[in-house]
Amino acid sequence: MSRSIRQALFALMYDIETRGPVRGDWPNYSRLDEGRHHCHIKKGKPTIVAVWKEDKRIRFVEVIYVGTHEKAPY
Fold this sequence. Notes:
74 residues, four-stranded antiparallel sheet, 1 helix, 38% strand, globular
């Protein structure tokens, strides 16, 4: 993973940790289904996305995928 993608991922993780898992201020953010979210962390070709899930019962968020848009587990 390139340095710029790692930096974007760490910035996203910091935003999730400090401001919560709903990140409408990130490019192409959307809620996928109950407790799962995604956004683009690099536009262009290839587009790199991050997918994360939250567990509200224990206040836990896990990034479950970072990679190309085509292989994302939507």
